[in-house]
UniProtKB/TrEMBL annotation:
Cofactors demanded by this protein: K(+)
Keywords, alphabetical: ATP-binding, Glycolysis, Kinase, Magnesium, Metal-binding, Nucleotide-binding, Pyruvate, Transferase
Record protein name field: Pyruvate kinase
Gene: pyk
SUPFAM superfamilies: Phosphoenolpyruvate/pyruvate domain, PK C-terminal domain-like
Length: 383
């Protein structure tokens, strides 16, 4: 599977369980529900159906609720927050965010409802571009909604801002999605245009976390083939692009610095000779996974946690395969001995990315009392 994540929009074309199951097998990681269309009574059972199919498949899957009119007053926000809480959504994407103040009411309401979902800001106006730094600081991630953005600014500027936004997100370790019209012609045709293939390839070359399909899967004639095309293009270009050397990665805490060191270790002649197959990280709140993912290694990142909600949210991060590590298998918060490491790697094998005898780079912390204290990096053979 590609390391770049694929988001599919759910609609009438993919309502059936067998189609949803096929999309997961083809590489879909996140299912988007556009609340601008249809009713809550239509979306709710479909969200549950996706969760059911994900459980059957054994694959971690996230749900994303796309909320229209994010700049409305609090009374309008509550119905969306209530739905998200009821359905245990993993992400909320807020439309037409123009400033930090458009995000804060949702964060306040989410806290009142004890909602764990992360908030993504959709960038689709000139004002959002002007206020991007404060929006990025407030939001948990960004969606580049190129359709509406292309109507707000000159079309030739859209690729420039796409690259700039992706770079800014990666530097601070927040996920970013490239959305809209990526394989638009496949709504009606079974093959993409060459321009569309180039568009997907350029998003990968820009180092995005995820690419998104909208009408292609919601109402298109070829939803499964569209996902297969997307995955194939992403996987090819991940192998062809150079390392992300022109980014100014912030190393403002211990985990960030240790993860950067682990990445440099992987890039070393020694590890290239050893043919390292994956990073394996043990994470309490996702920070270690974020800090490795943002460096965009051409290598799977197997993230082990005992938090099921965190597991789902990690589905959006580039390269990350999130897995549940039960406390009975290994004490997630204790100091590590050789038996613990063996249990961690045995669990990591369940992700299907590594096999016995292969070598991986393992990252974990021995001080769980403070956020950002990943301290151990080791090259380990998979038992």
């Amino acid at each position: 599977m590609s390391l770049t994540k694929i988001i599919v929009t759910v609609g009438p074309a993919v309502e059936k369980e067998n189609i949803l199951s096929s999309l997961i097998k083809a590489g879909a990681s996140i299912f988007r529900f556009n609340l601008k269309h249809n009713t809550f009574s239509w979306h709710s059972p479909l969200i549950q159906k996706v969760k059911k199919i994900a459980k059957i498949s054994g694959q971690p899957i996230a749900t994303l609720l796309d909320i229209p009119e994010a700049n409305k007053k609090n009374f309008s926000n509550r119905k969306y927050i209530s739905l998200a809480t009821e359905q245990e959504a993993d992400f909320l994407a807020l439309s037409f965010v123009r400033r930090k103040k458009d995000i804060e009411p949702f964060k306040t309401q989410a806290k009142k409802f004890s909602l764990a979902a992360k908030i993504l800001a959709k960038i689709e106006t000139r004002q959002a571009l002007d206020n991007f730094e404060e929006i990025l600081d407030s939001a948990d991630g960004i969606m580049i909604a190129r359709g509406d953005l292309g109507l707000e600014i000159p079309f030739e500027e859209v690729p420039y801002y796409q690259k700039k936004i992706i770079k800014s997100c990666a530097e601070v370790g927040k996920p970013v999605i490239v959305a809209t019209q990526m394989l638009e012609s496949m709504i009606k045709n079974s093959f993409p245009t060459r321009a569309e293939v180039s568009d997907v390839a350029n998003a990968v070359l820009d180092y995005t976390d995820a690419v998104m399909l909208s009408g292609e899967t919601a109402t298109g004639k070829y939803p499964l083939k569209t996902v297969l095309v997307m995955e194939k293009v992403c996987r090819f270009w991940e192998k062809k692009r150079p390392p992300a050397n022109n980014f100014n990665f912030k190393l403002s805490h211990q985990t960030a610095a240790v993860c950067y060191s682990a990445y440099q270790l992987w890039m070393s002649p020694f590890c290239q000779k050893e043919n390292i197959k994956a990073f394996v990280v043990v994470t309490k709140n996702g920070m270690t996974a974020h800090m490795i993912s943002r460096l965009r290694p051409n290598l799977p990142i197997l993230a082990l946690t005992n938090d099921k909600k965190l597991r789902n949210r990690l589905c959006l991060l580039y390269g990350v395969t999130p897995l549940i590590l039960n406390n009975r298998e290994c004490d997630l918060y204790g100091k590590r001995n050789s038996a613990d490491i063996e249990k961690i790697l045995t669990c990591a094998k369940k992700g299907g990315r590594i096999k016995k005898g292969e070598k991986v780079i393992v990252l974990y912390a021995e001080d769980w009392g403070t956020l950002g204290r990943t301290s151990i990096v080791r090259v380990q053979e998979v038992p």
